[in-house]
Amino acid sequence: MKNYLTIEEADRLFEKYYDGETTSAEQELLLNFLQQEDLPIRFEAEHALFGYYAEEKLRLSPSQELLFEIERPLQKDDLTEKGKIPHRNLWFRLNPVLKWSFAAAVLLFGVFLLDNRVEAQNSDVAYIDGHRCTDSREVTALAIASIEQIDLGSDEVAGTVNKMNDNNLVESQLQQFQELK
Amino acid sequence: MIRKRTFLPLLFLLLGWFAASGVQAQNDLFISKVFDMYGKKKGVVMVDLSGEILENYRLTRFRSITIKDDPEAATFARRCLERDQVGAKKIKEVVANGIPTSIYLQLPRLGQDNRLILYNESRSGGLRITLIYIESNDDTEAILKLLLKKKQ
């Protein structure tokens, strides 16, 4: 298929375009045709229309853009001078490796979030010799058993906590040395 | 350009990974490594509560691990505790033959949560270490009272 249009062919294709029957390849041909200089003035409306779509596409956010993605990747030459895509964006858009790796990163993040959510729903758990146990009675018993292994019975612990919470501790200790004055 | 082509996809994957692991990292403590490293090993009992069971106890998180006959794990746990002691209040420490056998720490609050670490090392009938991490909206005294009540 040739990649340029004569004015007559363009007229026919525009007719087809307004009937909604053009393929993306034909639209590309029309776009190329409109980029030519010294076109007859009657193509001004089409020029504006195609220029508008190109500009709109640039304004869309990446997520919206995915919805409107045309079948083939955009070419730099596709756009009018005014609507040219900055080189970096274009490179990102056209690079399938980048696109897929970005999708993989998002997927990875999603899987982790889902995993965390599922885990949070079943968040009372014990592991005995590496075997997972979610039976709440057994898990509770194991938790209490671990507390029992900690020596909390002495008054020493409670005393220390009391002292730590006593805001006047330093003053009360210093008072004992008042006599030295 | 070739460099960029290989570098950027890797960067995206790494970013995805870090973002995900950032969500998972629930605390900033070194002792979490003890749970991560030894929690699913043989001879180890690990408990992790943050759901329905805790509703009656006014705790938001309870983690415990009991490791038997693993001197390496004991050394590792003590090292982690040493690091976590920075900025924490020591409620109790018992040292036997130069080795700390009981350490109770009150950590700086994390938002609303009061955090405690309890560590015990027993050598009667073989080496057994127990490490407990607790988060609660209550103060330390109330948490200890609750634990004492549970023991009785």
- Widest beta sheet: strand line-up of chain A: 1-2
> What number of domains of chain B?
1
Strand line-up of the largest beta sheet of chain B = 1-2-6-5-4-3
> In terms of per-residue confidence, which ranges of chain B show pLDDT below 50 for 5 or more consecutive residues?
22-26
List keywords for this structure.
heterodimer; A: mainly alpha; two-stranded antiparallel ribbon; 61% helix; B: alpha+beta; Protein Transport Mog1p, Chain A; six-stranded antiparallel sheet; globular
Can you characterise this structure?
The complex is a heterodimer of chains A (181) and B (152). Chain A has two domains: 7-94, no CATH class; 124-180, no CATH class. Helices cover 61% and strands 4% of the residues of chain A. Chain A has helices at 7-18, 24-34, 44-59, 62-67, 87-94, 96-121, 136-148, 155-165, 169-175; strands spanning 125-128, 131-133. In chain A, a hairpin with a 2-residue loop joins strand 1 (125-128) and strand 2. In chain A, 12% of the residues are buried. Chain B has 152 residues and is an alpha+beta fold. Chain B has a six-stranded antiparallel β-sheet, covered by helices on one side. In chain B, a hairpin with a 5-residue loop joins strand 5 (113-122) and strand 6. In chain B, helix 2 packs antiparallel against helix 3 (71-84). Chains A and B meet through helix 6, strand 1, helix 7 and helix 8 of A and helix 1, strand 1, strand 2, strand 3 and strand 4 of B.
Describe the structure in brief.
Chain A is 61% helix and 4% strand. Chain A has 181 residues and is mostly helical.
